[in-house]
Amino acid sequence: MNTAPARVIATAGAMELLRRLGGLHGALMIHQSGGCCDGSSPMCYPAGEFIVGDRDVLLGLLDLRLGTGEVPESLPEGSDAVQVWISGPQYETWKHTQLILDTVPGRGSGFSLEAPEGMRFLSRGRSFTDPELRSLAEAPPLTGADWEVGERPPLPTEPQVVAEAADACPVPRR
Q1: pTM to 2 decimals?
Q2: Which of 6, 9, 34, 155 is most deeply buried (CB count within 10 A of its CB)?
């Protein structure tokens, strides 16, 4: 049984935007951009439009069937599954961090599907605890090469949708 925490979760707002975009564009994928003209924004594409490299890392599958606090009974497939990828070198820098996909008002990048929607995706992060890091060390992530030969991640055992980012990454009190 997988007891490692999810490497990616999403807010209810991000899931709603993904559902809206999926209704317009079909199955989706996210690639956590590492810079250049898009800064370090999560970029949303139609599934398969962004070519995943052999060394890219799958952070997880967001399940569009789920609401806040729900745990999936099976892995999502087709348009219910949003693959979330990051480049291998960028993953090495951020492997100690849970990515929290969120949305904020504003215009997304010209390359990302949400650009005309009045909202944009935003990556937030939470540092994993030492016990979580030990658990993750026993559950290495899948790479693009693994995905290509049919490997899939284990079924999550914890909810992957939170109402708001602060639910996953609380702001310290003074």
Answers
A1: 0.91
A2: 9
